[in-house]
Amino acid sequence: MRVLAALSGGVDSAVAAARAVDAGHDVVGVHMALSRTRDQFRTGSRGCCSIEDAGDARRAADVLGIPYYVWDLSERFEETVVADFVAEYEAGRTPNPCVRCNEHIKFATLLDKAVALGFDAVCTGHYARIETRPDGTRELHRARDLAKDQSYVLAVMGPERLARSMFPLGDVATKEETRAEAAARGLSVSAKPDSYDICFVADGDTQGFLRSRLGSQPGEIVDGSGVVLGQHDGAYAFTVGQRKGLSIGRPAADGKPRYVLSVEPVDNRVVVGSADELAVQAVQADRAVWFAEADGSFPCALQVRAHGDAVPAHATVQDGVVEIALDQAGALRGVAPGQSAVLYDGTRVLGQATVTAALRSSGATSGLVR
């Protein structure tokens, strides 16, 4: 097959491309330039879009003996990922930019362009497995190394794009195995640190980034009864479950910490309460993407964070809306609108949807939090 290998400049994508070459595929490497303002060097940069990364990707391609290109997708990235990130926070929701990047860039723009150029598949360094059933249906599963599993952020891609994807690292036992393989192959990125946090927020200061885009928007921090406890400089800087940065001068009656229960963008208010009030008993979601037939009610496991645990639940699908009731109320805390809800059956991904509301399971203010 003709395979386009996405080379980020990290060790995972380099080893994935090497394995595709070993499998006998006709492989071409491509690095996606996603930001016009990325840091020139990785020092102080916590993401994966530095110019240094592009150079590391080129050197990996040279070692593998494959053609290498850089595709400028920065305009598309700004329009679909960065703009969505800012708009979601401004609307009081909590987006996951990695999910949106996989949806709009890696498995939409990149894959569509690859197919148009005659490639059969796109190969990436994601940790996830693809299993093929006897009837030819492809299933997305968790990686063998659960600590590195990335099926959560891949669930948005859908079955059609999964059919043209390759994840050669899905069966790797540990990240150390990947690094050892890279070193044995003579890849200089074998000891390169992992990228983390949001790639377009190089210094890790998400609030500062949002403030630079949205400006100062002072408002009130209140409790569930509407009593004003403090002030904020922008409700967009807060998310459900957050504790740090509230700067509330008045202590709670019970002396316990307070957390963000909801963000109300219309009134520019942040509502806070106790940890117990964050407990959730059900989640509502829409814009679902399914890898399996989904109708009526069925048991599943629900995961709402990339590195969170999946908890037993039952999902009901009706008129495009997914209602997910937890088998044990309070098994999840602080679920926010905008988060990605991924449903599993064991290791298999059943589908993904975007959280629109969460029903809290306790406290005087329990109800739908939007």
UniProtKB/TrEMBL annotation:
<dbReference type="Pfam" id="PF03054">
    <property type="entry name" value="tRNA_Me_trans"/>
</dbReference>
<feature type="site" description="Interaction with tRNA">
    <location>
        <position position="339"/>
    </location>
</feature>
<dbReference type="GO" id="GO:0005524">
    <property type="term" value="F:ATP binding"/>
</dbReference>
<feature type="site" description="Interaction with tRNA">
    <location>
        <position position="126"/>
    </location>
</feature>
<dbReference type="Pfam" id="PF20259">
    <property type="entry name" value="tRNA_Me_trans_M"/>
</dbReference>
<feature type="active site" description="Cysteine persulfide intermediate">
    <location>
        <position position="199"/>
    </location>
</feature>
<comment type="function">
    <text>Catalyzes the 2-thiolation of uridine at the wobble position (U34) of tRNA, leading to the formation of s(2)U34.</text>
</comment>
<dbReference type="InterPro" id="IPR023382">
    <property type="entry name" value="MnmA-like_central_sf"/>
</dbReference>
<feature type="binding site">
    <location>
        <begin position="6"/>
        <end position="13"/>
    </location>
    <ligand>
        <name>ATP</name>
    </ligand>
</feature>
<dbReference type="GO" id="GO:0005737">
    <property type="term" value="C:cytoplasm"/>
</dbReference>
<dbReference type="GO" id="GO:0103016">
    <property type="term" value="F:tRNA-uridine 2-sulfurtransferase activity"/>
</dbReference>
<dbReference type="InterPro" id="IPR004506">
    <property type="entry name" value="MnmA-like"/>
</dbReference>
<feature type="region of interest" description="Interaction with tRNA">
    <location>
        <begin position="148"/>
        <end position="150"/>
    </location>
</feature>
<feature type="binding site">
    <location>
        <position position="125"/>
    </location>
    <ligand>
        <name>ATP</name>
    </ligand>
</feature>
<feature type="domain" description="tRNA-specific 2-thiouridylase MnmA-like C-terminal">
    <location>
        <begin position="282"/>
        <end position="355"/>
    </location>
</feature>
<dbReference type="GO" id="GO:0002143">
    <property type="term" value="P:tRNA wobble position uridine thiolation"/>
</dbReference>
<keyword id="KW-0547">Nucleotide-binding</keyword>
<feature type="domain" description="tRNA-specific 2-thiouridylase MnmA-like central">
    <location>
        <begin position="208"/>
        <end position="274"/>
    </location>
</feature>
<feature type="active site" description="Nucleophile">
    <location>
        <position position="101"/>
    </location>
</feature>
<dbReference type="Pfam" id="PF20258">
    <property type="entry name" value="tRNA_Me_trans_C"/>
</dbReference>
<keyword id="KW-1015">Disulfide bond</keyword>
<comment type="similarity">
    <text>Belongs to the MnmA/TRMU family.</text>
</comment>
<feature type="binding site">
    <location>
        <position position="32"/>
    </location>
    <ligand>
        <name>ATP</name>
    </ligand>
</feature>
<dbReference type="InterPro" id="IPR046884">
    <property type="entry name" value="MnmA-like_central"/>
</dbReference>
<keyword id="KW-0694">RNA-binding</keyword>
<keyword id="KW-0963">Cytoplasm</keyword>
<dbReference type="GO" id="GO:0000049">
    <property type="term" value="F:tRNA binding"/>
</dbReference>
<protein>
    <recommendedName>
        <fullName>tRNA-specific 2-thiouridylase MnmA</fullName>
        <ecNumber>2.8.1.13</ecNumber>
    </recommendedName>
</protein>
<dbReference type="InterPro" id="IPR014729">
    <property type="entry name" value="Rossmann-like_a/b/a_fold"/>
</dbReference>
<keyword id="KW-0820">tRNA-binding</keyword>
<keyword id="KW-0067">ATP-binding</keyword>
<keyword id="KW-0819">tRNA processing</keyword>
<keyword id="KW-0808">Transferase</keyword>
<dbReference type="InterPro" id="IPR046885">
    <property type="entry name" value="MnmA-like_C"/>
</dbReference>
